[in-house]
Amino acid sequence: MKPKLTQEQKLTWKLTQQLGQAIEILQYNGFQLQQFLEEQMKENPLIEIETESFTSDYTRPKQGMGFDESFWIDEEQDLADYMKEQLIDKDLSPSFREIVEFGIDSLDENGYLTVALTDWQLAFHTGEEMIEEALELIQSLEPAGIGARTLQECLALQLRRKPVPNHLAIDIVTNHLEWVADYRIEEMVLEYGVSEKEIKEAIQDIQALYPKPGILVAGRTSSTIIPDGEVYQSEGTWKVALTKWNRPSVTIYDYSLNQNDLSQEEKEFFQKYTQQGKWLQKALIQRSDSLERVFAAIVKHQILFFDQGPERLKPLVLREIAEELNLHVSTVSRAVKEKYLQTPHGVFPVKFFFQSGLKSNTGEISAYAIKILIKEMIDYEDKQKPLSDQKISELLKHEFHIEISRRTVAKYRLELKLPSSNRRKRRMHNE
Questions:
Q1: 362 phi and psi, to 5 degrees?
Q2: Which of left, alpha, beta for 143 (phi over 0: left; psi -120 to 50: alpha)?
Q3: What are the angstrom distances between the C-alpha of 154 and each of 124, 126, 219?
Q4: What is d(CA 128, CA 135) in angstroms, rounded to the nearest whole number?
Q5: pTM of the model
Q6: Is-contact 253 47, C-beta < 8 A?
Q7: How is the chain split into domains, by residue range?
Q8: Which of 243, 248, 337 is nearest to 292 (CA)?
Q9: pLDDT tens digits for 353-380?
């Protein structure tokens, strides 16, 4: 029984490992995939992989379509998007998800919460417990320390995430952080009744933390945008083609053929690397098929975008595509992560096509399209009497049959990095 059990355990571990690698390959963009394949060729002497070199002849979204550069999702990774992606696999009610996302949108670039809990509570007419639960969820996300209200809380959150939390360090950052800055070792020894060595170890743990965890995300950039697929029109139909570097060709050379005099060790060598090569072939085909299916489904749902432009972008969520393709939501999430599509309107991140939205009298409209309207209203407002968020809400209702609250207008305006009406008026007078 024992040999059989051991074999089954090895097989289970191998299958689990291969599944994990297949999932990892799916989330690679074209550039990351090429790097991965180069490593595979170094490790496996029996395979050869043909990949295409990259070109950089790609454009950002074109001008003159009702939006400008501020609507482009920057190459620099957005902290709010990064955190909202972590909510995908969490089973949250729509109302609670909105509360959590409001909190995420209220983080500054350093990752600190900028809204008071009482204001957060009033914004949703909900209880204190609900807001505290939302904050606790945000503070459990990556990077550690996110969602803190003070530097002390930020550092304590990071320390509590350690495999073995240093409770002495947690107490020091919570109650005596200034002692760390001044390196007041003796006072800490007297205060806590521990050895100087323990205090110095606690200080080392504290000094290894990040006082601005949001920068860890917002500071990461991709040096080059490489489209993973192209959307084009053929005979009146929108179609998708993966770029060539997303369809690499793997050749396996079996040098063991007709060589009966191989040693057992040599046979095992050829068997191992041949199997690895076959698995890689299969995983790459599966990745390409998954990407193509997901991209094609997105194009089908966003046909008005391709026909008429970005202002006709429809609301779309990952779950819709997942259910349509009979895939798990996390699979779709990995398929679109850090991927880009070349379109007639320019190159867009694939996640751009997933937009929240709401219903209007003329049908569903995406948050992105509403932002375009809000920006245009502010661009063409009477500069002597800038539009308040409440007035914008009323104009959207009366002129476009779109009903959104003043609070939602304020949220979208902040996402567009547009100041309030008071600040716009003050800025004009200062000029």
A1: -105, 15
A2: beta
A3: 25, 26, 18
A4: 11
A5: 0.55
A6: yes
A7: 2-56+224-254+262-352, 76-221, 356-430
A8: 243
A9: 887 766 555 567 777 888 888 888 888 8
